[in-house]
Each structure stands twice: as C-alpha cells, then as structure tokens.
Amino acid sequence: MAPRLTFLGSGDAFNAAGRGHSCYLLDDAQGSFTVDFGPTALAALKRLGRNPADLDHVLLTHLHGDHFAGLPFLLLDGCYEHPRGRPLVVGGPPGVEERVRALARACYPDIFGKPLPFELRFVEWEVGRPVDLSGRSVLPRPAYHQDLPERAFLLRLSLDGREVAFTGDTGWSEELRELARGADLLVAECSFFDSDYDRHLSHRILREKLPSIPCRRIVLTHLGEEARLHAGELRELGASTGIELIVGEDLLSVEI
Ligand SMILES: [Zn+2]
Asked: pTM for this structure?
C-alpha cells in the first residue's frame, strides 16, 4: 500500500476560512508520524479517530507557533489521556529541544517536574544532511522565511520508495525546484493571492513558476482567505501545464 498524507490542517497562522493550522499526518508501512504540529493538530487527529500515542515522530519545518505550538498538548495527552509507550522523536531546526521544552513549561509549569512516562528525543536538522528515522529518510534544505538565528527548512522525505516534499513556509528560491525535482508529491504553501511579501509563496508567484516546477503533482496548503478563494484558477493553470494541482482541505487524504 502506498503511503498516504492526510491534512490535519490546511490554513495559515490565522485559521483563514476556519481551517486548522497547516499540518500533515503521514501513514506508511512503518506506522504514522506528522510534519509540523500546530495548536489545532491534536483536535484534528481526534476528529479522525486516531490515537495520538501511535505517532512515532513530529518533523518540524520551523518554530513558528502555527507549526509547533500544539506540541505541549500532544505531550500532555501522552501522559494522561492516551498514555504513550513508544518514544516520541521531534525533529526540527537547531534549538528545537530548548524551544519545545520552554513552550511546554510556559503552558504547564510542572510538566517536566517528574520524568515523562515515555522517551522524548530531539533531532536537529542540518542543511543537506539526510536523517534516517526508522527507515524514513528526511533531507532538510534551507527555506527563505526567517532571519538568523531562526531557521526554517524545506523537507524532502523518502517513504516506502515514494518521495514527498514539503515547502513549510518559504518565499520563492531556486531551492524549491531542487526540493520538488522528481517528487511524487509536492506540498506547497500558498499564503497570499497578490502580495509583495517575499517570505511566503503567493498565487502570483505560483502562476509564474508553476510550469517550471519539476513535479507533476502538487497540493496547495497554508492558504490565506484570498488565496483559497482563487485556488481554482491555479488548478486550471495546473491542468493546462500537465500538473495535477490539488487544493488542500482539512482532513483531505491523498496517496503519495
Ligand atoms: Zn512561518
């Protein structure tokens, strides 16, 4: 069975059009994990009837709240609601452990007062260094989204012989073509319709770049209000250039 991607959320930081924060559940032969985990992610998992304790990893593209601030609730759920047996590995930018622990402590000051009943491990991304997590390969690339010392990443994953690429949050750069090259599925953010802000992708940028992106299946995510309203036009542009372009929707599930 081919691995699957399910949208736990498809909206931007502002929950545009009532959508959850962009976050993805991946199911493969080894089990399940997520890419990003915003504040609405746990609710979406439960809407799907999934047990949060079954997740092996949470792979973070960057440390903006809409992409990682659901983790304190996942940790708490693993302590009390669905006691977790298996370890949880959180991958993310340099400093990920300190940020996640600080956030969890700000929410629940005594959360680390005694040892968690499960192993919590952290892995830091380095540009161009592949990480193997239980047979799943993760290749981080640089995103164009934040100023140092903050760092955002594009992630390319190999799962059961299939390739899926995530832009996370980023403006346009040539790295995106390399990220997408030959992938079975590209999960691309499209925050804006017609904006000059260059640290997110927009409808305008994608219209210009879409024909040259070396991937034939693209799913749009992180959609702001206007970008969602006009997403049908991108779908039509995709069709005219031989690209299957899917508009992301909360709880939508696609084969990779
Ligand atoms: Zn961001």
From this structure: 0.97
